[in-house]
Design goal:
Length: 427
């Protein structure tokens, strides 16, 4: 037996917010929307008179006769009959708007490169479209080893772009290129051995001597430029020498006058001209000057004619021209070879990465009386961390810093201080 459901609405108290949410206002919204629509389209219909809403049609409507369409077979017969009788003319041909030269080439079978390219592109597009349609429902397969060390995803991989919605960033060229071809661990000089050969030890000794000599020369250069330019404490000027210098020429001195006269005479002798004196009889007149001017003009004209003859006769000196070309090519090849060698040498050199220049560390040289003949007596020297740090700076991986021994490493940067907005003083 089915239980009849009661259709009686529940009585809800309106003084609580919970009951407010359960009130359905859809009908009210529809009514208000209809009211606004009527006001926009000419006014409310309920308020309008009947004359504004209805009109009487006094004219009789003509009955339209519906013509029955002929059947398909009937239309085909009529078309065939029109063609046979000749009543129906053939459809007009479309006017070819192309140039006459293009139409003539097409008639003769001549195809341009542009048309060939367009045909190939159309065939390729059709081929790609058919391939997409054939493989539309297939799942893509990986073209690389999923469990390998390197995934091998290329920049233009379709699967990578479809899954990640972006292209892989192309790495710069110099990422895989070493900054320097200098080996990370350089082999030590054979003369650094605990029991080196005599010639190898002498070679190392000579290199260390050359390096120390260069340091001494640089120190002497600085001393000549600074210390030797200023007098020492013994030769420094005194108060007496300063007074004597400032009072020079204030007091009369006979010996000084005599010496001044002698110096004036010597100056006059030195200022005498070596050219002979000009005599009026030896002066050039107008005729001589004109003649010299004509001779100079003739010499310039002869030089110009000579250059013109050489230019005209250049066809007869093909051998010399070929020799000059070969010589210029040889010079260019030599310059290019030298430049290539310099570029190859730069790959092994240390570049200037900062305001300091890289300084090679001192060679670990032992003097002859410090050499030992057995490993038992050998004392360990050097520091592996310092050697690695020097290698990084030499191979352009780290910026060169101050000397490792006795100086603070790294660059001291100025501390930046920021004030939070919440702690700022109100202005």
């Amino acid at each position: 037996m089915e239980v009849e459901k009661s259709t009686k609405k529940k009585r809800l108290s309106k003084n609580k917010k919970k009951s407010w949410r359960k009130v359905d206002t859809q009908e009210l919204d529809d009514f208000l929307e209809d009211q606004r629509l009527q006001e926009r389209t000419g006014g409310i219909i309920a308020d309008k008179p009947d004359e504004a809403l209805f009109f009487v049609d006094k004219e009789l409507s003509e009955k339209k006769t519906v013509e029955s369409k002929p059947s398909r077979k009937r239309r085909a017969q009529e078309q065939l009959k029109d063609i046979e009788v000749g009543l129906k003319p053939p459809p007009p041909k479309k006017k070819d708007k192309r140039a006459p030269a293009v139409i003539e080439k097409e008639r003769k079978g001549i195809v341009s490169v542009k048309q060939k390219t367009a045909t190939l592109q159309r065939k390729q597009a059709i081929k790609e479209r058919n391939q997409r349609l054939r493989t539309k429902g297939r799942q893509p397969t990986a073209q690389y080893d999923l469990w390998g060390d390197e995934p091998g995803i290329e920049v233009g991989d379709e699967h990578y772009r479809r899954v990640t919605k972006k292209s892989k960033v192309k790495a710069p060229v110099h990422l895989q290129k070493l900054p320097s071809l200098t080996p990370a661990v350089e082999l030590p000089h054979p003369g650094m051995s605990y029991n080196p050969d005599y010639e190898e030890y002498q070679d190392l000794y000579y290199k260390a001597y050359e390096k120390e000599l260069q340091k001494v020369k640089e120190e002497e250069k600085i001393e000549r430029a600074l210390d030797l330019k200023f007098p020492t404490s013994n030769n420094a000027p005194t108060e007496h020498s300063r007074l004597q210098e400032m009072s020079e020429g204030l007091f009369h001195d006979k010996t000084a006058d005599n010496s001044d006269d002698d110096s004036d005479i010597d100056d006059d002798v030195d200022n005498l001209s070596v050219n002979p004196p000009v005599i009026r009889d030896n002066k050039k007149d107008e005729r001589k000057r004109k003649k010299e001017k004509q001779l100079k003009q003739k010499a310039k004209l002869a030089e110009k004619q000579k250059l013109q003859r050489m230019k005209d006769n250049s066809i007869y000196r093909l051998k010399s021209i070929k020799a000059e070309i070969r010589e210029s090519d040889r010079i260019k090849e030599a310059k290019a070879k030298k430049k290539a060698e310099e570029r190859a040498a730069e790959l092994y050199q240390t570049k200037r990465l900062g305001h300091r220049k890289f300084e090679e560390p001192d060679l670990p040289l032992k003097l002859s009386d410090e050499l030992v003949g057995s490993l038992r007596e050998l004392k360990p020297e050097g520091n592996l961390i310092k050697d690695r740090f020097q290698s990084y700076m030499k191979r352009n991986i780290l910026e060169p810093v101050g000397s490792i021994n006795g100086k603070k490493l790294g660059r001291k940067y100025k501390r930046k201080v920021y004030v939070k907005k919440s702690h700022k003083d109100p202005q």
